[in-house]
From TrEMBL, chain A:
<keyword id="KW-0238">DNA-binding</keyword>
<dbReference type="GO" id="GO:0003677">
    <property type="term" value="F:DNA binding"/>
</dbReference>
<dbReference type="InterPro" id="IPR016032">
    <property type="entry name" value="Sig_transdc_resp-reg_C-effctor"/>
</dbReference>
<feature type="domain" description="HTH luxR-type">
    <location>
        <begin position="735"/>
        <end position="800"/>
    </location>
</feature>
<dbReference type="InterPro" id="IPR000792">
    <property type="entry name" value="Tscrpt_reg_LuxR_C"/>
</dbReference>
<dbReference type="InterPro" id="IPR011990">
    <property type="entry name" value="TPR-like_helical_dom_sf"/>
</dbReference>
<dbReference type="InterPro" id="IPR036388">
    <property type="entry name" value="WH-like_DNA-bd_sf"/>
</dbReference>
<protein>
    <submittedName>
        <fullName>Putative ATPase/DNA-binding CsgD family transcriptional regulator</fullName>
    </submittedName>
</protein>
<dbReference type="Pfam" id="PF13424">
    <property type="entry name" value="TPR_12"/>
</dbReference>
TrEMBL record, chain B:
<dbReference type="Pfam" id="PF00501">
    <property type="entry name" value="AMP-binding"/>
</dbReference>
<feature type="domain" description="AMP-dependent synthetase/ligase">
    <location>
        <begin position="4"/>
        <end position="90"/>
    </location>
</feature>
<protein>
    <submittedName>
        <fullName>Non-ribosomal peptide synthetase component F</fullName>
    </submittedName>
</protein>
<dbReference type="InterPro" id="IPR000873">
    <property type="entry name" value="AMP-dep_synth/lig_dom"/>
</dbReference>
<dbReference type="InterPro" id="IPR042099">
    <property type="entry name" value="ANL_N_sf"/>
</dbReference>
């Protein structure tokens, strides 16, 4: 994993000015401090400073630095999910996601940047505290208007930029202003420096205020801007009058900049506040162009807002976003206007329409290539932040029908792409609202869809119940009808209730075929073939698997293709045709790579590794299992880890390494217990008796208990690397301390401390002042990393530093 | 080390021995360095007269910085804090802490945190 990316930090939109000393200080703090929170008012530059620090610390963390952007989410429970997503973890039923994140990062050395925490302080603090407690190599850098209040947190107040002094051009605030004015096309000469200095002081060196002012220098001179800002300060209408001066200054600058906008620009700015994440022109045209604005003016208006630094864009002007401070200001303006409901309703409708269109292209439209299906899937996922915001509004405004519709067309919320089945939470929340205005068929459909989400979390009982409730009431959507039948069938099959399952599978097939829905047809055919395998009818299973693959191929969705290929592999493996099985698994693997679904990918890699081991191709088996293992660990899925360990046991046996096989099998047993699954099987009993015969009772028992007492990932790595189990080694030796760092004088004083002398006594002996002695001692402690005089004395004695 | 008393706290009446003073001073100075205090910096100290103040001031000097003392009940406290060039302040005083919000002080430490 040497070439895996080591950070996800966004590119900076323009030059960073000043704060050199602060960056250096902050970087140095992470030696000792595990959590630093950059605090300060909005617009003071917390995020930019944090990104700078994070960039500079890149080489200090072996596992990199990772930014988690919290401004775009509004629900506390999404904080951990957002962190999990950044680290590529996936959710699993019955598993606390915080626990999964902690497990994943327990052995890592990384910096986690939690950006914009203020609206979710409690949830963020909870997550950060869990990370710090469970992951010794993790450091947290947060930005927030208020402190997180977690143990060990260092609160660092971000100050404004330096104000101009005797040499104005040297001041950070002046430099920032001039830099941004230049970027806006204004070259300010020496003669304007006094006015620039006056403006910087009026704006108290606040970076965002300076940026907004500099964006106006084409129209107004710095002196004119300074005059107007002073006037504005007297007229301030928004914000809290008792708020700190800095906050009021910023509010004045934002209001001033806003008031200079045309009515149309103001309208667009406040409407933009409903967009959740970054956005493109297309979305702006759809959501923000209602009268008095029009679609044709959007490019010009958006460009005008970019020129005024109220909207930020990437270099090629393809993606845009609002700074959090500006978004809040714009949202307040929207709330004051009479169009909030209209714009948010429209946002919800537009999202619904876009996601429905993507859903059609991904699943329903016949004759679409897999590339197009994949593009639709990716597009849908890219709208996730906006979809969440729209669902939030559906809940708030009581538009349950539209909310449910949006849920049902959310491939991005499903497990297909490998993400958490978040849709379950949304549907459940919506169904808890007042449903008197929702038509019963719609509720039925929602439950059918809920069933799918539940099953993909391995929640068989609830999935079956939801599918049945849904089937009893739904109408009008054959795709969901077929899905609900397939889910019910699949759940029943996995519960060992095949007879009941076939009824549903047959219904799913009938509905899907009648409506030309090949996605569900393929899914139902796979379930039917699984039932055949369960009953030992291998030829029937093979025919069913082939049919499923042909139908999946005609549909073209990478996920259903992968599922069909994987099932073909299983059928082949069951009848002992290992070569074919390996081929099919590899086909499934390549589809899943296209899709980026790592949970299913890890499962198929593990299966492929198992087959390779049985075929005697041990290098190939190792390679696949290594990847499966890395992936299972990355996504934090215990089920995937479990499958890896099962395959590793097979591999070890194929190599005649009974010891490793026992180790892996015992780790499987532990893992299954932790997931609440049944343990013990004929295979394991057989393995253990073979091991007892060859290795003896004592050795076998000791291996078994060793496998149970260590983390599954560690056991898996050991088995994979083919290392024979060894006795535990002793604690590491402590490295030598760098005494040579001390100056001669410092060595001398360190030595005198072993005699227990006071600062005053040392001072008298050396004929220096006690204050100087104290300073030398501070230097020694700094160099040796100690926190008390006694430690120095012990060190000096240990290292034979002369005491006189 | 002898048990020479170097300070009697006017509030609590507790005594501070030379040994305690040297030890607390060393620990506090090391901590200040870790919080970014460097030679040539200014550190605001707004503590009531007492052993905490003595140790804090000596620690700031030992860390190589200059002490800028402020009486907690003094006039113009807000102004002094807000216009100060200090990057770090040692205080438990609510008014000083509030003023720090509008200053250029990066880090605020309480006497307890400093171990002084």
């Amino acid at each position: 994993m040497a070439d895996a990316p080591r950070h996800n930090l966004p590119a900076e939109p323009n030059r960073f000015v000043g704060r050199e000393r602060d960056i250096g200080d902050l970087c140095a703090m992470f030696d000792e401090t595990r959590a630093v929170t950059l605090c300060g008012v909005g617009g003071i530059g917390k995020t930019r400073l944090a990104l700078r620090v994070a960039h500079r610390l890149l080489d200090d963390f072996a596992d990199g630095v990772w930014a988690v952007e919290l401004a775009k989410i509004s629900r506390p429970e999404l904080v951990v999910q957002e962190i999990a997503e950044v680290f590529g973890l996936e959710s699993e039923r019955g598993r606390d996601l915080t626990d999964a994140v902690v497990t994943r990062l327990a052995g890592s050395s990384c910096l986690v940047l939690l950006d914009n925490c203020e609206h979710l302080v409690e949830a963020t603090a909870h997550a950060a505290a869990a990370l710090l407690a469970g992951c010794p190599g993790v450091r947290v850098l947060a930005t927030s208007r208020e402190a997180l209040r977690i143990p060990g947190e260092l609160i660092w107040h971000v100050p404004p930029l330096d104000l101009p002094g005797s040499d104005p051009s040297a001041a950070e605030s002046v430099q920032l202003f001039l830099n941004r004015a230049r970027a806006a096309g204004t070259q300010l000469g020496e003669e304007s420096l006094p006015d620039v200095a006056r403006l910087c002081r009026a704006l108290d060196g606040l970076p965002l205020a300076l940026e907004l002012a500099a964006a106006r220098t084409r129209m107004l001179s710095p002196g004119q801007i300074a005059d107007r800002i002073d006037d504005r300060f007297a007229l301030l209408t928004s914000g809290d009058r008792t708020a700190p001066a800095r906050q009021r200054t910023l509010a004045a600058a934002v209001e001033w900049s806003h008031d200079l906008l045309s009515e149309a620009e103001k309208t667009l700015l406040r409407r933009l506040s409903v967009l959740a994440g970054g956005f493109d022109l297309d979305l702006v045209e759809r959501v923000c162009a209602e009268p008095p604005l029009s679609e044709s003016r959007m490019v010009t208006l958006l460009g005008a807002l970019v020129d005024k630094s109220l909207v930020i864009c990437d270099e090629d002007r393809g993606r845009f976003r609002l700074l959090d401070t500006i978004r809040q200001f714009a949202a307040e303006r929207l709330a004051d206007s009479d169009e909030e409901r209209m714009v948010r309703d429209l946002h919800l409708r537009v999202l619904c329409k876009l996601q429905e269109r993507a859903f059609d292209a991904e699943f329903l439209t016949p004759g679409v290539t897999w590339r197009e299906r994949l593009a639709a899937h990716t597009g849908s996922r890219d709208r996730l932040a906006d979809q969440r915001a729209a669902l939030e509004w559906a809940l708030r405004s009581g538009n349950i029908t539209m909310g449910l519709r949006l849920c049902m067309r959310s491939s991005g919320l499903l497990s297909l792409g490998g993400s958490a089945a978040e849709v379950v939470g949304w549907v459940e929340r919506l169904l808890r609202q007042d449903l008197s205005l929702v038509v019963p068929e719609q509720i039925g459909l929602a439950k059918g869809y809920l069933a799918y989400g539940l099953l993909s979390r391995d929640d068989l009982d609830s999935g079956l119940a939801a599918a049945r409730e849904g089937l009893a009431g739904m109408a009008g959507d054959p795709f969901v009808l077929a899905t609900a039948h397939t889910v019910a069938g699949g759940a029943l099959l996995r519960m060992g209730r095949g007879d009941e399952a076939t009824v549903h599978i047959d219904s799913a097939l009938a509905v899907a075929r009648e409506n030309g829905d090949r996605f569900n047809e393929a899914g139902a055919l796979i379930e039917a073939s699984i039932y055949s395998l369960q009953r030992g009818r291998q030829r029937e299973a093979q025919r069913g698997a082939e049919d499923a693959y042909a139908v999946a191929n005609a549909h073209g969705h990478p996920w259903i293709l992968a599922m069909a290929a994987s099932h073909l592999g299983l059928a082949a493996e069951t009848r002992g045709d290992l070569e074919s099985a390996a081929e099919h698994y590899d086909a499934a693997i390549s589809w899943l790579r296209e899709l980026g679904n790592r949970g299913d990918l890890a499962q198929n890699l593990a299966r492929s590794g198992r087959v390779c081991a049985q075929l005697g191709d041990l290098p190939a088996a190792r390679e696949r299992l290594a990847e499966a293992l890395a992936m299972a660990r990355e996504c934090g899925l215990r089920q995937a880890m479990n499958r890896c360990l099962v395959s590793l046991a097979t591999l070890a046996r194929a190599e005649g390494d009974l010891e490793s096989a026992v180790l892996a099998s015992s780790a499987v047993a532990t893992l299954r217990e932790s997931m609440g699954q049944r343990t013990g099987s004929v295979k394991v009993d057989e393995l253990l008796s073979a091991a007892r015969a060859k290795l003896g009772e004592g050795r076998t028992t000791s291996l078994w208990s060793r496998g149970r007492s260590r983390p599954p990932y560690e056991v898996a790595t050991q088995v994979l690397e083919g290392r024979r189990p060894e006795p535990a080694t002793g604690p590491l030796q402590v490295g030598p301390v760098r005494g040579s760092l001390l100056t001669a004088r410092e060595q001398e004083i360190a030595g005198m401390l072993t005699r227990g002398l006071s600062n005053k006594a040392i001072a008298e002996e050396l004929v220096i002042s006690p204050a100087t002695v104290a300073r030398h001692i501070a230097n020694i402690m700094d160099k040796l990393g100690y926190t008390s005089r006694a430690q120095i004395a012990v060190w000096a004695a240990d290292h034979g530093v002369p005491s006189a | 080390m002898d048990q020479r008393i170097v300070m009697i706290d006017p509030g609590t009446g507790q005594t501070l021995t030379e040994e305690q003073h040297d030890e607390r001073l060393a620990t506090a100075a090391a901590l200040l360095r870790r919080r970014g205090v460097r030679a040539g910096d200014t550190v605001l100290i707004c503590l009531p007269v007492g052993s905490d103040l003595l140790v804090a001031a000596d620690a700031v000097m030992a860390a190589g910085a200059a002490v800028s003392p402020l009486a907690p009940d003094g006039d113009g406290l807000w102004e002094r804090v807000v216009t100060s060039s200090a990057r770090l302040m040692i205080s438990d005083d609510p008014r000083a802490l509030a003023a720090a919000q509008d200053s250029r002080i990066r880090v605020v430490m309480s006497a307890a945190e400093l171990g002084a």
